[in-house]
Description:
Elements: E1 2-4, H1 9-41, H2 46-86, E2 89-91
Antiparallel strand pairs: 1-2
Amino acid sequence: MYTVRSIGVMSLAKMMGAVYCALGLIFMPIFLIAGLAGMMAGGREGAFGAVGGVFLAICFPVLYGVIGFVAGAIGALLYNLFARWVGGIELELRAPAVAPTVVAPSAIG
Length: 109
């Protein structure tokens, strides 16, 4: 049994920032569609809806990545703090099964 006693704050922050940025890219088409819907439904104010939707679509992956980075850093700091008191997460690791290798006898002769 292995115990995770601490997590690298910057390591988790970078990973969470990258994951959340990717999620922001996935959600980008939703904001573009919402901007187009706002443009079609709005009459004179439709241009404002389209500009707002495009602006959010462009900014959303960056902002979501920054939020993920900050949340990852805070999460790692909190984990490290609580792991001192509680003892961390226990993991049971198993080595991968390795197939036996068969060595052919060499031909002598």
